[in-house]
Amino acid sequence: MTLPSRITAMLGPTNTGKTHYAIERMLAHQTGVIGLPLRLLAREVYDKIVALRGPSVVALVTGEERIVPPRVKYWVCTVEAMPEGMMVDFLAVDEIQLCSDPERGHVFTDRLLHARGRLETIFMGADTMRPAIAALVPKAQFHKRERMSTLTYSGSKKISRMPGRAAIVGFSVDNVYAIAELLRRTKGGAAVVMGALSPRTRNAQVAMYQNGDVDYLVATDAVGMGLNLDIDHVAFSSLTKFDGRRMRYLEPQELGQIAGRAGRHMSHGTFGVTGEAPELDDEVVKSIEEHQFRPVNKLHWRNSRLEFGSVPRLIRTLEQRTDDIWLSRMREADDLLALKALSADAEVMARASDGPSVKLLWDVCRVPDFRGISSGEHANLLRDLFNFLHQHGHVPRDWFARQVKRIDRTDGDIDTLSKRLAYIRTWTYVAQRNGWVQDESHWREQTRAVEDRLSDALHDALTQRFVDRRTSVLLRRLKQKEGLVAEVNDNGEVTVGGEFVGRLEGFRFRMDKTGSPDEAKTLRQASVQALVPQFNLRADRFYNSPDTEIDFTEQGGLMWGDQAVGKLVAGADPLKPQVVAFVDEEAGDDVATKVQRRLQHFIDRKVAALFEPMLNMQRDETLTGLARGFAFRLGEGFGIVPRGDVAEEVKTLDQEARGALRKHGVRFGQFTVFMPLLLKPAPTRLRLVLWSLAQKLDEFPEAPPPGLVTVPALKDMAPGYFAMAGYRAAGERAIRIDMLERLADMLRDKDSRGGFEANADMLSITGMTLEQFADLMQGLGYKAEKGERAKVKATETAAPAEGEASEVAAEPVVEAAPEAAEPAEMEVFYTFTWGARPQRQARPQGGRREGGKPQGERPQGERPRGKGKGGKGRKPEGNTKPQKFEAKPKREKTIDPDNPFAAALSGFKTK
Predict the structure, then answer these.
(1) What one-character-per-residue DSSP string does 610-637 give?
(2) Inter-helix orientation angle 440-466/199-210, to 10°
(3) What is the pLDDT of residues 250-273, one digit of tens each?
(4) 623, 617 Cβ separation under 8 angstroms
(5) Which of 180, 502, 576, 760 has the smallest set of CB atoms within 10 Å of its CB?
(6) Taking a C-beta distance cutoff of 8 angstroms, is the pair 561, 510 a contact?
(7) 481/252 Cα distance (integer angstroms)
């Protein structure tokens, strides 16, 4: 005795457990089939049943996937792929409210009207279908399910302030990508779920969200079709969508279907808007919260009793109308449009001349337009398929292999991979149709393998673009209050929990490059906490490191190896600079204090070592009076003072004071008073840094390269730079002050009034050409008069005859003059004379005006020239007219004993 079939309409909002109940009821029967609205959801239900009953008794049939074991008991299908005419004990259709969908509604309506299980039938969906089901299925029993949790409207939120475990819904691919990109920059990333994704890609993306790798999901409205996810909040980025024909506002029941994904089991959920979406109307909010929507009053319908006598007859049956007030003939679907397009093709119409051929043509026209290129391109593909199938009974293997091989590539960006996935879905669909290809099992496996490779590549591309994995992982661990441990390798690379986050440079954390300030803030928050122990360990090691590991730069920076750890700033005393340590605030006060103290010790010892002669001189208590004052004056100049700047002080020093200063290495040069030991490269480098700090320069000048006697005298240098560098600017070049004093010693015996020429020694110690030397001399206050003369050629000398004494100078060999003398070779020479101003304009002895003749000390062992024992000055060399001089009264008190020129030129007056 056959039991009557029971038909149940299980209606209610989302999160009522309807699908779970249907699965339990199906497994209570020997056989069953369940139809689901999405390929993604079908795969999810299939996996659940396989876990309960094993893969040998469960089949999965969708447009692009067909897994049918030999002993099938339970079929999981998309609604379109549900086998027709199959007698099973149980049958269920999910989301039955899609009967009102303009695109697919006719398929769901047909299942509502005609699909039945022998023993039990269940239609699951929204309560809005109650009146329609009651009218069209009078035997149906209604079972209302209540939502397990509440759903509450929370208003508008910025995406950057979106709470965790949220799904943001967009209604276009561009919108979904833009939201996911923003979430990557601000929240570490998001998973992406769209109806066009393959199940493999969708599952991989959902897995990232479910296991907490990312805290956000960006999806199209496909998320509203029964996908069971742990979502706490749903936010709409728009309230309009393109439905295939036009842009329109979403109906309240559509919004409610999507918003209902928030809250799982007993966990409450919230919904709201974000981005440019306006606030929801109060009536719409009330409808969603209370699950009260306008009932469905029209179901889309298309005649399913087709006649295949001819193509025109088939079209007429597809366009047949109904008188039922609940049913509305649907608009032309893609398959009907394709049939009409192919009916205009003469070859197709010639082949479709009988019932089986027309039925074959209709089966071909039902191949979905996965590619979405254009209706014309799709019609051309269908024409080729129909011609192949009609002529050969199958699609040629070589042709089919070329189509698949052309798509089997995993390079390219997201859009390219998505397009290839859409293409392979076409060939997967073809391979799944019985009898359309030879070696069906091979091509089903082949097309599935290509789809899997493309799915994995697309998942990787989506993850790479929309997920900052390290930030999301670190945030998840922080949220779960896991202990994070930072590791720093020898190159300073910092990893936290195995994720590279940046570099530790000294005591500052430099994050890896990120896309935005928000992203950087997130990454820093997750990394710095784990770095605190590393900061302390590094500070201990730095504090105990030797001075040889620390150095200063010419810009006042302080380095530990190749890492910047601080900088110098001016102190109250130029010789006591202060230190600013570069330590991140998160490292703590103890670390900052330890680093600062170690750097201060370093620079104090460096100053003490490099300026030891000068500091010893300042601390010498035996220096008293003027000598002690001059020692501190020299200290203010860091050991170098142009003589013209201290002419009065030098003049007042007696021989005893000078001798005491010379014991400390002070040299009273004609141009500079300096300490030769402080001219070495290391003190010079530090002196320039300390001087730059005292002068408050924005950019510190660099020290000249060691070993150069002269350097270019750049015009834009800060006043006083060349003296601090150990040079004196003269003309276009600057000469080192110790070499300048050697040059001054050579000039002592020269006739500076009558004029003299440069000799080889002068050019040698300066390393200059004659023209450069002339410019130098002019810079020192001399006049340089250029002239030309015949160059004297060196002639050979006669060798001494054998037996003659070699001490006798050989006489030059005189060559006979040629008949026609060649033009003599000319040479350039310079005559140098002192270019001082007239005596009456001179400053008092011991000093000089700008450009005045230098004063200084003679080389040791040389007698002073000028004033003799009798108190009379000698006649200057080169004077053609002898002049008489007489001593000026009381002049001797002002003569600088270290200045030979002062004695010669200042002690007498012309009669």
Answers:
(1) HTHHHHHHHH-TT--HHHHHHHHHHHHT
(2) 40
(3) 889 889 989 988 887 778 899 999
(4) yes
(5) 760
(6) no
(7) 40
